Amino acid sequence: MTKEQINIAIAEACGWLIVKACDGSLIGKLKNEQGPMDEIPDYCNDLNAMHEAENRLPSDKKEDYYIVSLKELVNQINQSIDNNVEAINQGISKYLDEDFQQRINNFFESLDNYLGSYRDSLRQAQKDQKLTLEQKEKLVHELSVIVPDATTTIKKADSYLERTQKFMEGK
After folding, report:
1. pLDDT at residue 24, as a whole number
2. Statement to judge: residues 83 and 52 lie in one domain
3. Which residue, 14, 26, 38, 124, has most beta carbons within 10 Å?
4. CA quadruple 71, 77, 83, 86: dihedral positive or negative?
5. DSSP single-letter state for residue 19
6. Residues forming a β-bridge with 16
7. How many domains does the chain have?
């Protein structure tokens, strides 16, 4: 903005009616005043005129000024960031702990089921030793059908064990 544009803007904000005179100067008068028009104040170069303008401006157009310590503000922002990072880390740790604990519980539940089935199988094997040859052959055939399921379960247990070892190593 030019100085002339600034002077016009301030004068209008203070309540001046402004017109341009034939010679190109700016003249006007306050809206509520009677009498001849005067040259508008030179707010850009006259501190007294600017002080008068500040007093005429409505209170909602005044500005408040504050002194801010940049060092203190940076320290507060850094502290806030540190607190937020710590809170996020605690949340992640809690989530991982809960997830890890759930995986451990699932693993041991699966292991307990597997070992329970294994114990039952051993008991059944002891009973099967008392069977006749024909009954044993029939039993061998039936057991060979479940070998793929047993192999899959064993692989799954090995996978859980491998995961647990990786978690314990912190990978």
Report:
1. 78
2. no
3. 14
4. negative
5. E
6. 30
7. 2
Say yes or no: 91 and 158 in one domain: yes
Backbone φ and ψ for 38, nearest 5 degrees, come out as -120, 165
Say if CB 19 and CB 38 are below 8 A apart: no
At 14 the pLDDT is 84
Contacts of 106 (CB under 8 A, 6+ apart): 160
Task: Give residue for tokens 């402004």.
Answer: 18
- Cβ within 8 Å of residue 41, ≥6 positions away: 7, 11, 49, 52, 53
Structural domain span for residue 79: 70-169
CB 30 within 8 A of CB 16: yes
CA distance 65 to 63: 6
pLDDT at 26: 81
The answer to whether the CB of 55 falls within 8 A of the CB of 65 is no
**CA dihedral sign, ordered 94, 97, 99, 101:** negative
Query: For the chain (length 171 residues), average pLDDT per consecutive 10?
Result: 87 84 82 83 89 76 73 92 94 86 90 93 85 84 88 93 86 57
DSSP code for 131: S
Place of tokens 């051993």: 122
Reduced to 3 DSSP states, what percent helix, strand and coil does the chain have, rounded to the nearest 5? Answer: 70, 5, 25
